[in-house]
Amino acid sequence: MFKNTPLSYGLVAIILHWLMAFTVIGLFGLGLYMVELTYYDSWYKGSLDLHKSIGITLAAILIFRILWRVFSKQPKPLGTNTKVNQLAHTAHIAMYILLAVIVVAGYLISTADGRPIEVFTLFNVSALDFVFDDQADIAGKVHYYGACILIGFVVLHALGALKHHFIDKDKTLTRMITPVKED
Fold this sequence. Notes:
Elements: H1 11-36, H2 44-71, H3 82-110, E1 117-119, E2 123-125, H4 135-168
């Protein structure tokens, strides 16, 4: 039940999927909220610290998820439309790449002043020894637009899952909710 099978995702893949989904959506909402705050708002620093800490945690989960995906069997796609299956696979890869770009850009924003990122007051992630001109501004644009594009992919991904469930009436969505035991 923990590992993927040819028919279903295992518990590890399912937990990683939903943990990342809710984290990405939450970070996007928090990010939109944060940019509306002024320096003098009481929640300005707290929201920024929380966003950075969750972002670093998401980076670690992303690395683990990619490794899990590479070294685990993947369930066979349902349906016979190979073009749609290939498009879905390409969209998944694009989401992983976008997540990586967003995380790196967030890191570059946060460390542009040379200070490390404090993660939940538990440990620090060091800044790099080099910076480039307008690092925070350039990385900020990449971070923002990357996040907007990623949310667009997330919406399409969710709509595709709902289409599979309600229109195609296949098990694409349910196998990402509950692992199926192999007989």
